[in-house]
Every structure is written in structure tokens, then in C-alpha cells.
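Lab notebook page, bench 4
Experiment: in silico fold of construct C2
Operator: M.H.
Input chain length: 115 residues
Purpose: comparison with the prior construct
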Amino acid sequence: MEEYYYKHTEEREGFLITFYARPEDLSPSDVYEEEVVCDYQNLLIQNGDISWFRAEVVASINGIILAQSSLGCCAYESYQEFIADQYYTDMVDEVISQAKETIINLNKRVSKIFS
């Protein structure tokens, strides 16, 4: 099982939506070009003032993952701040749309098997 710092779940449109804040492989210096910004970001992260993570949002039903989306290099004061952000909302909308499409495609395949 992949490590995570934080987990949040909620029900949306019949799907269980799970948000994981996972460790980010990239450092701020891999992302930001300006050394001053990198040093500042690193200091904030080391002091615990901000969290540096990879966001993952999953849509599932009965433990079956139907869709997932991830966004790297997230820097927020709290995981709740990310959940309140438009990025999270967009990710949830995306996985719900993908999950519905997955169900439609599975239904077509299953119908062929049993026809």
C-alpha cells in the first residue's frame, strides 16, 4: 500500500471520493527556477509552515477503483486548504466523469458477455 500523509473521504453522486496527500518525489528546487524561491519554499516545508505533497483523488464503488487523478508539487498551509481549493473540485469532477464513463464501458462489455 502506498504511503500517504493525509486521507479524506466523502460521498459524491454515489461514488466514494478519496483524497490522499502522498509524498512528492520532486523538491521545490526541481520545480522553481529562482533559487530564492526554492530556498524559501524549502524553509517553509522544513519548518512545517506548509505541506509539500502529491494530491491523488480516487472515485470508487464497493472498494473498486473506477478512476483516479493526481497533481504533483502541491504546496499548501494545510490539506484542508487544498480540499477547499478549485484544484480539488476539478479533480473530483474529473474522476466522477471518468468513473461514469468506466461504468458505461463495463456495462457494454458485460452485456456482450451475457447476451
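Observations: The radius of gyration is 18 Å. The mean pLDDT is 90.
Next step: discuss at group meeting.
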